[in-house]
Amino acid sequence: MTTRPGAGPSSREGADLVTPASPDSPTFPLVAALARTAGELDELVTHCRACPRLVAWREQVGRERRAAFRDETYWARPVPGFGDPAASVLVVGLAPAAHGANRTGRMFTGDRSGDFLFAALHRTGFASQPTSTSADDGLTLTGVRITAPVRCAPPANAPTPEERRRCAPFLAAELRLVQPHVVVVLGGFGWQALLDTLAELGWQVPRPRPRFAHGAELVLEHRDGRAVTLLGCFHVSQQNTFTGRLTPAMLDAVLVRARELAG
């Protein structure tokens, strides 16, 4: 089994599952349907090699490394979700950053997007500390879990539609296991991917699909009677945070609203 850098031995929960394909197979993400807990799912995610382009890129970045991190060992694997396994609030991003989560092995950890997000999670009472620098920095999340539709760092931060579809079973399994009451969606890519996955899981998604917008609030019902609220938020990318398109106050407001709805 694989361990994250500095995180100690990983769970072996996923080791006993009978998998329908090798990690290199395009069908490997379907193994997510067998996961019985979030811990099992996380372990399975880390072994996936189903997308050759993403595997090649994440490993190349891990070998060549950025100068500032040249002495570090990069994670260079798919990145599992992070946070409370029984969270009422799920935060959905895009994909791991090449020198952030692809380096540290933890979602939104080790880059400026993560600095912005975790500072807000701390201010709103979801995170134990305002920084997220490494997988063993002591950070814990309460009531919230962070994930993404694509689990490998993509070239130019742009996964292809096929890569997104291939990775979708992992997001579907996470939604099934966590069953959040509220989902905060960071950016239009995550919004579209989430709506596609929710529709496949039996949620009643309107046609035409509701468009992403910062501050958007969408309540969806499942055929079994459950409800979930989606909250749109501009992504915490430097392109948005450095230009003021997304301010700390704007992000805090979305997270406070998520807490209210989940409460």
From TrEMBL:
Where the record annotates domain Uracil-DNA glycosylase-like, the positions are 80-255
Is Hydrolase one of the keywords UniProt gives this record? yes
Q: Which UniProt keywords apply?
A: 4Fe-4S, DNA damage, DNA repair, Hydrolase, Iron, Iron-sulfur, Metal-binding
The record's annotation in Pfam families points to:
UDG
> Residues annotated as region Disordered?
1-23
Output the Gene3D superfamilies linked to this UniProt entry: Uracil-DNA glycosylase-like domain
PANTHER family found in the cross-reference section: TYPE-5 URACIL-DNA GLYCOSYLASE
Homology family? Belongs to the uracil-DNA glycosylase (UDG) superfamily. Type 5 (UDGb) family.
Q: Could you identify this protein by its name?
A: Type-5 uracil-DNA glycosylase
Q: Which organism is it from?
A: Cellulomonas alba
